[in-house]
C-alpha cells in the first residue's frame, strides 16, 4: 500500500542493493534508519551491522516491519523531528541512513546537524541519505552560486558532503517527478565558536531572507536588532558592503559574527 499522506516513495529492490553498497556498513557498527517504510534498506542493513534502530512514523508499516526483522533491529514508531536522538547516541558511535521524505528533508538535516553539535553528539559519525537532487545540489554548493544558501552554510560549517549516487525516478515506487541522489554527510567539529551558534544562525537566516540585496542592506535588520550599524560591522569584518549574502564564505561569516559576538 502507498502511504501518500507521509510523502513516501519506496526504494525498488535493485536500487536498495546499490544504496547499501554505497553506505558500506561494517559488522561492528550501529545504525539509525530514518523512514524504513516496508524495509528495503532495513533488512539489507540488519544482516550487515551489529544493531539497527529504525524510526517509522506510519504505525501500520512499523507493525508489518516488526514481524519480518531480525532480533538486532529495534523499530521505533515516531516522527524523526520529535524523537529524542540523544538517547540513541549514549550507547556509542552511530551512523544514520535513510530515504528522507522530500517534503521534510531539510528539517531532518537541520535536526541531524543539531544532534551532532549537542553534548555527546560526537558519537554521530555520518548520515548517508537519499534526497531530492536539488537538495543534494544545495548541500554541496559553492559560495556565489544559486544553490548556495542557509542549508549549505550550516552543513559545511560542521560536515563534509560527498555525493555517492544519482537515482532516476524509476528507482522508487511510486516514481517521484524528480531525480534523487544519495549523499554522505560526515560530521566534524563545528567551525562556529561555542556560544555563537544562536547569533550565527539568526544572522545568516536574516541575511538570506534578502539574499539579492547588498550586504549593507541585507545585514541591516540583524545588525540593528543587536544595536549595531551594518556598515560599521562589515567594515570591522573587512567585508565589502556591496557584495551579496550568497557570496559570503564560511570564513567571511565567522569573521562577521565575531564582530557581533566579540567574546566568542
Summarize this, please?
By secondary structure, the protein is α/β, with parallel strands linked by helices. The protein has 2 domains: 4-187, 3-Layer(aba) Sandwich (Rossmann fold), CATH 3.40.50.150; 197-260, Helicase, Ruva Protein, domain 3.
Q: Whole-number radius of gyration? A: 20 Å
Q: What is the typical, i.e. mean, pLDDT?
A: 92
CATH superfamily annotation of the largest domain:
Vaccinia Virus protein VP39
Low-confidence stretches: 1-5
- Binned strand content: 15-25%
List the helices and strands and how they pair.
Elements (H helix, E strand, L loop, with lengths): L9 E2 L1 H11 L6 E5 L5 H7 L4 E6 L2 H8 L6 E5 L8 H4 L4 E6 L5 H13 L6 E9 H7 L10 H7 L2 E9 L4 E2 L6 E8 L9 H12 L6 H4 L1 H6 L4 H8 L12 H11 L4
Helix pairs in contact: 1-2, 8-12, 11-12
